[in-house]
Amino acid sequence: MERVQFQQEQMLAELKDLVQKGLFTQNEIRQVMKKRTVLETALVRRIPKKSDFLRYAAYEMSLEALRRKRVERLKLPKGPPTISDFALVRRQFQIFERALKKFKDDVGLWVQYIQAAQRAKARALVSRICGRALQLHPNSPALYILAASHELKHLSHAAARVLLQRGIRLNSENVDLWREYVKMELGFVESLRRRWKVLGLTTDTGEHEHMDGLDKPERAEESDEALEEADKNDEQVRAEILNGAIVKTVIFSAVKAVPTRDLFASLHGVLSAYPCPSTLRRSLLDHLHSLLHSRILSTEGSDPDPSNPSTRLDAKGRAQCAKLYATRYLTLDLEGESLVDALRKANEDLMEIVRERRDDDEMASAYAQFVTEWFEKEINEHLNLYLLASLQSLSSSGRSAPLYVAHLRLLRSSHNPNPFPPAKLLKLTRKYVSRCPMDVDLWLLRLEVEYALENEEDMEDADWRGAWEEARKKFMLRSMPADSRRDEIWIWGLERLSDRSLPEQISGLESLLAGTQMDPFSSLSEKLLIRYIRLLHRRAQLAVQAGEPASYIKGDQAKDVSRIASKYLPTERVWEAAFDTYSNENQDVDLPDQSTSSSVVDEQEERGQALRTIYDTWRLISPTAHSSAALKWGNWLVRHGKGGEATRVIANARIVLAVNQDAVVQFDQRWKCIVDGIGNDQNEDGREEGIDSDDGLVD
To answer: φ, ψ for residue 393 (rounded to 5)?
Structure first.
């Protein structure tokens, strides 16, 4: 407490000054001292918390904001600065300094300190903080970018360049650093352009035109020739700089260091959006895309250094690079005929690449993405029809699922100026699915079309249930990879059956579960079983609501759990979801009033029996499952006033885990967190919510 007392003594002068100026009353000063005492006491605990420091700093920031508001409102006369004018801001910095002594490895805390100093307009302090932070975290690109932006804000291009170059040397593969470096050099070129324009140092006129009418001494002819040669050299250098020579060098170095799709896309975005002359933008974009073509797309230049992992692009990366190169002329400033010509050129280039690579689905996906992006912009309905026709021609000339999917989606899009007849759409959808029968997106589109057209007139041929059954058979192979997305097909139909009665939904799920028993441990079986358990629990709750205690109050829920355990072999994930379902106190049905119905008490006993059955079955899977089940069951027991039984459950779990001491330690920590959380919840329930006494200080 001596440190708290010391900090309190340091506050006396500033608080006295605040009272003398009339900014705070004596009562408010007492509140400030009380709050600061609490916050200071939290900082001197044995194990400090970063949140305590941040809470203290936030309080000082709000106090300083209040002081500034009151100074403006009272219109105090300006005079020499006193201690209260800067003490609150200085205290913020002191709090951050104390925090960084404890948490110097926290980059986020350094960033918050820098931002606080920037808000206080402490330019020199920001530079010092950035230097200290970069010494401790030289591999943090965010700190270099933050420091460089601070230097640029104060027109120090040289310091910003040094910072970014240092960051790139240590983090040469970071795309964000290269992007900010290019952006900084673009700003530097633009500043030189404006400065030379003011000085009259243009590249299209001479620098000494005002001396043309004056007589020149004959003795100075040789020196004049030397000056003219020097002027020509300076003019040539200035012209190269204004034409982007520096920026092109940076782009070349970036591409050499990180020849990836993300870098090209990031630099393309910067060059397209940065405010600069159109001639310079076109020159830089041409340079960037020539590098893209030579290092990524051309056969000779692809993967120039196979030993460098950053130069090895997958098929998707190459496809995206090809799309970026083909759309290089589609800049933001295009409109009218120039936009139409650029879009046509890009579309033709991409179509040619797709035709050359008929078996490249990634390239087809990139083209489909390009068409979809411009189709949805709805620039002109004729352009939409042109893009749709181009996509249809490619779809009809090959077997590419991404093109089929894009074609069907655009036909159904609201931006389609020429809606497709429903009968033809259904026929086309089935045709595409027959060509690519193992594509999930195509099947989902077919199911959506069948479902949407089933109830329309003259569409008796549409049958989404039959199509769903056919799709399930296609995606029921056990040998399918885990990322085949087959689960989406099954879940799609279940969502469409949610409008059926509860018994019909349960019966349908039971039939589906019977079809998944060849692979009971798959993610699909887990998802279906979790839905099945939730439906059974909902049926039990509805029975209670209807006042039918004989049906689901005398042990039937526990019997349901036992039947599931023996018939479906649930995994740990399923048992955890089942426990959460049965232990959930917030039901989605209206239960009878506890004061008037005994069925609620019976239902709670039934809930406990079901949870006990889940625990007894769950813990037998493995020691890890035993620990998870014991924590869940013990938590429920403590919350329902059965602490003695919970203690026995936890002790039994510790015996099972005794062979692994690390597992016992982790188990004890998790149980301690649960008990602490229960205690905090009980304290919050017994405490009336209110407003802190010092909240009135903030206007």
So the answer is: -65, -40
Q: In this predicted structure, what is the pLDDT of residue 202?
A: 61
Q: How many CB atoms lie within 10 A of CB 88?
A: 20
CB atoms within 10 A of CB 51: 9
Note the pLDDT of residue 208: 39
3-state secondary structure string across 191-228: HHHHHHHHHCCCCCCCCCHHHCCCCCCHHHHHHHHHHH
Instruction: Name the amino acid, one letter, at 472.
Output: R
Considering the entire predicted model, what is its pTM? Answer: 0.70
Structure tokens at 200: 């009259």
Q: How far apart are CA 327 and CA 339, in angstroms?
A: 11
pLDDT confidence of residue 225: 57
Residues 6+ apart with CB under 8 A from 384: 375, 378, 415, 416, 417
Nearest to residue 582, comparing CAs of 550, 621, 628, 614?
A: 614
Secondary structure of 445-491 in the HEC alphabet?
Answer: HHHHHHHHHCCCCCCCCCCHHHHHHHHHHHCCCCCCCCCCCHHHHHH
* pLDDT value of position 519: 63
Residue in the structure block whose two tokens are 């039918």: 548
The residues, any chain, with a CB within 8 Å of residue 243's CB and separated by 6 or more, are 280, 283
Distance CA 659, CA 130 (A): 49
* Per-residue model confidence (pLDDT) at position 377: 84
In angstroms, rounded to a whole number, what is the distance separating the alpha carbons of residues 123 and 76? 27
Q: Report the chain's terminal Cα–Cα distance, integer Å.
A: 32
Q: Which tokens sit at 347?
A: 């579309």
Residue 603 tokens read as 């239902």
What's the confidence (pLDDT) of residue 690? 39
Burial class (CB in 10 A: 0-12, 13-18, 19+), 122: middle
Residues of the chain with pLDDT under 70: 1-2, 8, 201-233, 299-313, 457-460, 476-484, 516-521, 544-555, 585-603, 679-699
Contact assessment for residue 63 and residue 36, using Cβ atoms and an 8 Å cutoff: no
Q: Would you say 248 and 185 are in contact if contact means Cβ atoms under 8 Å apart? A: no
Q: How many CB atoms lie within 10 A of CB 525?
A: 23
Token couple for 511: 């039939």
- Distance (Å, rounded) from C-alpha 405 to C-alpha 443? 10
User: Rounded CA gap, 211 and 213, in Å?
Assistant: 6
Q: Measured between alpha carbons, how far is 693 from 65 in angstroms, rounded to an integer?
A: 18
Which pLDDT value is given to residue 552? Answer: 44
Q: Rounded CA gap, 326 and 81, in Å?
A: 62
Distance CA(150)–CA(64), nearest Å, equals 23
Contacts of 650 (CB under 8 A, 6+ apart): 630, 634, 671
- What pLDDT is stored for residue 132 in this prediction? 93
Give Cβ neighbours of residue 475 (< 8 Å, ≥ 6 apart).
438, 440, 443, 484, 486, 489, 490
Q: 523-545 and 502-515 are packed helices; what angle lies between their axes, rounded to 10 degrees?
A: 160
